[in-house]
Description:
It is a single chain. The protein is built from ten helices and five strands; from the N terminus they run ββαβαααβααβαααα. It has one domain (2-215). The longest helix is centred in the last third of the chain and has 19 residues, at 197-215. It starts with a strand and ends with a helix. With 219 residues, the chain is an alpha/beta fold. The radius of gyration is 18 Å and the shape is globular.
Amino acid sequence: MLISVTKRFVFVANTKTASTSIEHLLVPHCEVFRSGTPQRKHTPLHETLQTYRFLFDQPNHAPHRYFKFGVMREPLEWIGSWFRYRKGNKVQSPLPPDTTFAEFWSAKDWNILLKGGQPNLQQRMFLGPKGGVLADVIIPYHQLDAMLPEVLGLLNIPGILPHQNVSEITAPPEIPTGMLDELQAFYAPDYDLWNRLDAINEKGMAKLRQDRAKSAPAP
């Protein structure tokens, strides 16, 4: 999670969505950078807004005055990326090399369920407690190379996106056909958000362009 007061943006570091690489470009422009444990880095947007109320409660720093954005991955691709990462990379909680995706899924560990037993969904990073979308733009992962340069340009942040903390295993996992219905039902809330991203982003990008045009210095 990053907050730039000078450039007026909040970056939501969703997991397995190139957040480490994006942070590499954004950190030099941020006054607040939560790093360390995954829980600190991957802080949901509504929690960020609550934690830093001393900032966002100020009239000139109300949340609507900040561009709030992050990246989301297609749900099955997202959990598949977690599976590949934990099998192939040196991590704190590696999977045995012979683990199948079906075994990984049946274990229902922290990748699947949160501590309270609720589904671990990407939408919790971007939605409020009542289900409203708090982010202005949620870039689909497969559109990152197309959309991020415009966002960076409007934020007046130079740089080319590096590739850091990527999975060493690149081949997608073999998901048994019989599991697809269960997976799609489990991630139905994420698919609901995923299918609305074009409309959300069209509105959010229009607002960002308008806001930055207003703040641009006169010629």
